[in-house]
Write a structure and sequence with these properties.
Blueprint (H helix, E strand, L loop, with lengths): L13 H5 L7 E13 L4 E6 L4 E6 L13 E10 L7 E12 L18 H4 L3 H4 L3 H23 L3 E2 L5 E2 L11 E4 L2 E5 L4 H11 L1 E9 L12 E10 L5 H21 L1 H7 L11 E3 H12 L11 H15 L3 E5 L12 E2 L2 E5 L1 E6 L2 E8 L4 H10 L8 H8 L5 E7 H9 L20
Parallel strand pairs: 3-5, 6-10, 12-13
Antiparallel strand pairs: 1-2, 1-4, 2-3, 4-5, 7-9, 8-9, 10-11, 11-18, 13-16, 14-15, 16-17, 17-18
Length: 439
């Protein structure tokens, strides 16, 4: 009888090799052959491991016949210091075993420093392209951003929740919503977890979720996806919507510190300069538009929203005036905010809401919500909405809710801006846009 106990042999990983603690010791490593160079009397093999690559060196007769790039192998040998090798070490291979062989050569040259593929060429080849070191580095940093969100908020007393993605009504309204046939009934893919995270703020006070968001927007821009990953939080018993901005600033500070501490190889490979998040300036919506227009001699065309060019100018203005890559733009016009946004009691044309811009692009939208039943119903009716269609949502208001608010961060946009990418599709493993459902 065999029993499984949950314990297994610890593998030698890339971080162990590069740390220098295994020098002159025997190891067994596995990975894919990233590059192979036969120099006559010696063969240099670059082994691509889970986190990074390591140089391996051996005599030609050590390697199995027919070994080529993308063969999966297990290598045994001794680790030795080699300043000229990436990571400062190499493995002197003594035995090698092939675990699997590719049936066809790679369609892209993974050994090149940069692939240099266009989007139209690279996206259909995504399963192969993602093996390139620079592509892998982007999504390792994305992992760090999501990991920091979960770790920071858990430490701040937030409870992680998981909400439905098939819903009976859209949270944002409008036409940008995917419709489904749900056993003969109309249903939709969730535009956000808005209603549910508000509900759960009345249960746990502080909640967060990392999950997919669906928007049926017929855009073909470098900043939009039809499915993206939302980092959402909601907080009860807030004193001001500035409490929400404080929470996000705390997360960003934690995330930048984590990336700088534990993701240095990826930062260096991509040439990423981490933005400081210790103190983020705040500008009112109307002031931000005016100041950027005056400084750069531009006309304000839409008084109720920010155009992409305006976001870029505001980001430039804040960088030049305050040295910050981030800026909170607050008090958005009520006309452009959802029905659950709380209006500013000092000026009902504006809301207690905000966007966060990073290097001139919006990566977050948030604000205080209406918590009173009568107030929420009145705002719905003023917008021509039927409160009866939102009966389950309004239950939280009817039976008492604390002052609360929250935000949603687009993980792909945050990744794109952090890494200096020029298209959000590069920050999505398998992007979904208006024309793409595969791979």
């Amino acid at each position: 009888m065999k029993f499984v106990t949950g314990s297994s042999k610890q593998l030698t990983v890339w971080q162990d090799l590069t740390g220098g603690g295994l020098n002159n010791r025997p190891v067994t490593v596995h990975g894919a052959v990233h590059a192979l160079r036969d120099m006559g009397g010696v063969v240099f093999l670059t082994l691509r491991m889970a986190r990074g690559s390591v140089q391996c060196v051996c005599a030609p007769d050590v390697l199995p016949q027919g070994l080529r790039e993308e063969c999966c192998v297990e290598l045994s040998g001794a680790v030795r210091a080699e300043p000229r090798a990436p990571g400062g070490v190499e493995v002197a291979v003594e035995t090698a075993a092939v675990l699997s062989r590719p049936a066809a050569p790679m369609p892209v040259p993974l050994g090149k420093r940069k692939l240099g593929l266009s989007l139209d060429t690279g996206l259909p080849l995504r399963p192969a392209v993602l093996r390139h070191p620079r592509e892998r580095a982007v999504f390792k940093l994305q992992e760090g951003l999501a990991r920091a969100f979960r770790d920071y908020l858990t430490g701040e007393g937030f409870t992680e929740i998981h909400t439905p993605k098939i819903v009976h009504a859209g949270a944002e309204g409008g036409s940008n919503i995917f419709r489904l046939d749900y056993f003969g009934k109309k249903a939709y893919l969730a535009q956000s977890p808005q209603f549910y995270k508000q509900t759960m703020a009345g249960v746990y006070e502080r909640v967060f979720e990392i999950g997919p968001v669906f928007r049926a927007e017929k855009h073909a821009t470098p900043r939009h996806l039809n499915e993206y990953t939302g980092l959402d939080l909601e907080m009860g018993y807030i004193r001001s919507f500035y409490d929400i901005m404080e929470a996000e600033t705390g997360y960003l500070r934690h995330a930048m510190a984590l990336l700088g501490r534990e993701y240095r190889p990826e930062l260096e490979l991509l040439g990423v300069e981490l933005p400081a998040a210790d103190s983020i300036p705040c500008l009112r919506f109307d002031d931000a538009k005016r100041l950027a227009a005056e400084k750069y001699g531009c006309r304000i065309r839409d008084p109720f929203d920010l155009e992409p060019e305006e976001e870029a100018r505001i980001g430039r203005y804040v960088k030049e005036e305050y040295g910050s890559d981030f800026v909170f733009v607050t008090h958005y016009p009520s006309k452009k905010r959802p029905f659950y946004a709380m209006d500013d009691p000092d000026d009902l044309k504006y809301t207690l809401s905000f966007d966060l811009l990073l290097r001139g692009l919006e990566v977050t939208t948030g604000g205080q919500r209406i918590h009173g039943y009568a107030e929420q119903v009145a705002k719905m009716e003023a917008r021509g909405m039927d409160p009866a269609e939102f009966e389950s949502y309004l239950m939280i208001h009817k039976h008492g809710m604390p002052p609360h608010g929250g935000l949603g961060i687009g993980l792909e946009r945050l990744t794109m801006q952090l890494c200096g990418l020029d298209n959000i599709r590069y920050a999505s493993l398998f992007p979904r846009d208006r024309t793409r459902m595969e791979p």
